[in-house]
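Standup notes, structure subgroup. Blocker cleared on the flavin mononucleotide input:
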Amino acid sequence: MQKPLPQIQVRNFQINPPLILAPMAGLTHSALRQIIFGFGGVGLLSTEMLSAKRLPSESPRVSPYLIRTPLEKPLSYQLLVSTAGEMAPAIDVLHKLKADAIDLNMGCPAPAVGKFGAGIRLLERPEEVRRMVAEARKLTPLPLTAKIRLGIELDEQKLKDFCAMLEDEGIDMLSVHARTKKESFARRPRWEWITKVKEWLKIPVIANGGIFSVQDAENCLRVSGADGLMIGRGAVTKPWLFAEIAREVYGCKIEEPAVSLPMVYGNFIDLLNELFRPERRLGRLKQFTPYFAQNYKFGHLLATRVQSSKSVDEARERAGIFFLNGT
Ligand SMILES: Cc1cc2nc3c(=O)[nH]c(=O)nc-3n(C[C@H](O)[C@H](O)[C@H](O)COP(=O)(O)O)c2cc1C
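Run returned:
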């Protein structure tokens, strides 16, 4: 296999290696980002989607969506926007927060988001998207990126026109989750469709969906011809996955991670306790655990015990017992 380019240049900003953490609601907060960053190999971190409308009233010191440490760098902030008018106040906040890049969510299929015409529904509103991107481009010198799915349904011409419009209006890089709106995670992602997007555009195209191992990363790059990879669930299960891919696929000089699962889990709880208000911690632990538990043969036991815990301390204790016995 031809070695992929080791970095992406977006404006005067380098993503090196071209491995990006996918935005994930309830998961890609400061605690997980710090753990992933600690293992290395990630070229760009990401927040979860942030409502552009609500952003100006969030407090960066206490909002679990905005809390970050100087360590988490470079960090892209993802905006959930439904009209061009929401752009200016939100971008103003992101400049104050020292965002390294701004991503626009055009792929979320959740009905609660679609109700406002946001997320993947934007694919049906290309003229509003044109205004949104043009407005954002006028307002920020930062790398401006977008994340899409393949479409509401598969329609090559529609997808092509939409992607070309994004590039024309000044999007610097496009991440493509290789599924349509209706396609669930159970379906194999259509990495081969990313090849088409890549042919249509000059800007870097990032492949997303279904990368859980070094082998998946190699396959995805081979099939898609993408300029880089965006990884979501795989990095929650194995926060060291970026380090492995960076070393084995991109030849980065990164130590083979010495992984102690109980230590990673304990560290995650410590960070939740350190960063977030008490009422915000347990929910996030419960969201993280089913992914992390997949590292164990009987991980479903860990997940259900944490799920029924009434406090973070109880969850920690139950997890400790599980780690000792493996069941
Ligand atoms: C729990 C969860 C939350 C997600 N939240 C977001 C989000 O806030 N913004 C977004 O663009 N995509 C979101 N996604 C989609 C992911 O970014 C990614 O496109 C998807 O999980 C496929 O990549 P993966 O197979 O590497 O996980 C979310 C996915 C999951 C599982």
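Discussed briefly. Residues 22-27, 48-49, 78, 105, 107-108, 147, 177, 208-211, 231-234 surround flavin mononucleotide (CB under 6 Å).
Next: hand off to the docking folks.
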